[in-house]
Automatic annotation (TrEMBL):
This is Deoxynucleotidyltransferase terminal-interacting protein 1. Residues 163-260 form the TdIF1 C-terminal domain. The gene is dnttip1. Transmembrane segments: none annotated. Monomer and homodimer. A minor proportion may form homotrimers. Interacts with ZNF541. Interacts with the terminal deoxynucleotidyltransferase DNTT. Interacts with TRERF1. Identified in a histone deacetylase complex that contains DNTTIP1, HDAC1 and MIDEAS; this complex assembles into a tetramer that contains four copies of each protein chain. Component of a histone deacetylase complex containing DNTTIP1, ZNF541, HDAC1 and HDAC2. Identified in a complex with KCTD19, HDAC1, HDAC2 and ZNF541. Increases DNTT terminal deoxynucleotidyltransferase activity (in vitro). Also acts as a transcriptional regulator, binding to the consensus sequence 5'-GNTGCATG-3' following an AT-tract. Associates with RAB20 promoter and positively regulates its transcription. Binds DNA and nucleosomes; may recruit HDAC1 complexes to nucleosomes or naked DNA.
Amino acid sequence: GGSRGTLRKPRSTGRTCKLHTERTQPWNMMIKHRQIQRRGRRSHMSVSYTDPQVSMDLLRAVLQPSFNDDIMAVFKKYHKFLEKAAENVKENVGQEVPTDQLIKETCRSVLEHVSDIITVTSSLLIHIYICVCVCVCARRVKPRSEPIRREGPKWDPSRLSENSTFVLGSRANKALGMGGTRGRIYIKHADLFKYAADAKDKQWLAERHHMRATGGKMAYLLIEQDIQDLSSSDEYRECPELKMDELKPFSVPDWMVEKMQRAMEAQRDA
């Protein structure tokens, strides 16, 4: 009758297992693969994997069958060429040449020479992993840098009207080439005005197919003009990942505009 993943310790052993966790690191916040809980009067106990190598190896174990299938598909694609080449070598050198062994050694050599590509890919994965860690830390740790500047014409609530157009934050993230890291736009451009849609707003947006029904998930709206200004700046103008057609801008009713104006004023004065 316990919850999923719950293990009960046999009563025959009266030993108590003490677990020592490492000092908190960014990956500690992200990775918690399993929990062990004990019911009753005894205190709860949890086990978390804090070693990033262990965490990545768990992912590797899950993906390994798919990797194997894809690699075998590649080798099957080129096997006929290797087979013909091995037979040609056998005809030229002599009957004692083991063609199967030649093919195996060639395949092994191919995998070894892919190491350079794997190194680049691994670096990319590590970069993405660090970006995700930064996102998590940014949500939990107050920044010690200079305060965010929320002033000037862009933070004037009167700029918002029934003629204003808005975009989903997730679409703006993709449009500026940051689709690989969810929410990166909010960290990189913290001075942008973003409006957190409430339940009524999200219902209105979903009914008009501007977004999917997200349930309890957060949904942010950004001003389209702010994103257009960013796209034409030196930072993004030559960016090959720029996809401004992802924005899909839309207008909102007056009652939502009024809420946005109040939110902008509150954020500006905070």
